[in-house]
Each structure stands twice: as C-alpha cells, then as structure tokens.
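The records we work with from here on pair a chain with its fold. These numbers are not coordinates but entries in a learned vocabulary of local backbone shapes. To see the layout at work, look at the sequence and tokens printed below.
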Amino acid sequence: MKARLVIASVLAATAMIGSAGAAEAQSRNHASVNQYGYNNEIAGQQRGWANRTVITQRGTREYITVIQDGARNGATLSQGGRYNQAHVDQLGRDNDAVLGQRGSNNFGYSLQTGSRNISGISQMGANNRAVTSQQGHNNGAGIIQVGNGNDAELRQRGNGNVTLIIQGDH
C-alpha cells in the first residue's frame, strides 16, 4: 500500500506539469492539446469509449504519440525542452499513464495492456530513457530520473505488481 501511495504521488506531481483545453467526439473520447514552440509534433488515435488524453508540449522539435484502444483509459503527457520523445500505448480499460519530461534528448514510453494499471514516468535532464510495460491487472509502475544519461526499463506481467525506480544525480 505504501508503494502505491508513492507511485500515486509521482503521478500527481508529474500531472501538474500539464494544462488543458478540450475536444470531444460522440464516443465520449476526449483529447486536449497545448503546444508551444517550434517544429513540435503530436500524433494520436483513440478507439473505444471515454478515453482521455491531455498533452502539453513546450520547446523545440518535441514529439508525442498516444494510442488508446479500449475504455476509460487516461493519458497525461507533458514535455519541455528540445528533442524529447514521449509515447503512450494503452490497450484495455481503466489504465492511467502520466509521462513528464524536461530537458533535452529524453525518451519515455509507457505500454499498458489489461486493466486498472497505473504508470508514471518523470525525467529531468538530458539523454535519459525510461520505459514501462504492464501486462495484466492492478499493477503500479513508476520511474523517476534526474540528471543525464539514465536508463531504466520496467516490465510487469501478471496482477498486483508494484515497482518504483528512482535514479540520478545527487
């Protein structure tokens, strides 16, 4: 339970990085995009019902993709700096992913299949890489990286797993 609270705190802190606007379709899917800077790109696809995506991007040559296929999935992505990439794929229902990056040349990816999974990635610095993969139900994953050149990959299979990785400069 304590680990879930830590991950929930990471997700909340990372989510505060972004802000929202709105667009809604008949399937009750919702996408909000705020983009500032130069040569930034966003691509996404929502299939299913009541999926939510909030994206905020500030900087130069940033790239974000989100794919949601299922019901009631939530994705919040925010990045600022230069040359960052963030990707979220959610296949299932009731999954939540938060991904926040500040700096340059960072890469973050979250894959969720199943239901009721929570994933949070927060990276500050340069040349960091973080990947979470969750297959199953009721899993919690978090990666926090501060500094430069960090690399973390977290894979969860099954049900009820909770993992948190923290690394970086002191």
In short: Confidence is low (pLDDT under 50) at residues 1-25. The first strand starts at residue 30 and ends at 38. The chain has one domain: 2-168.
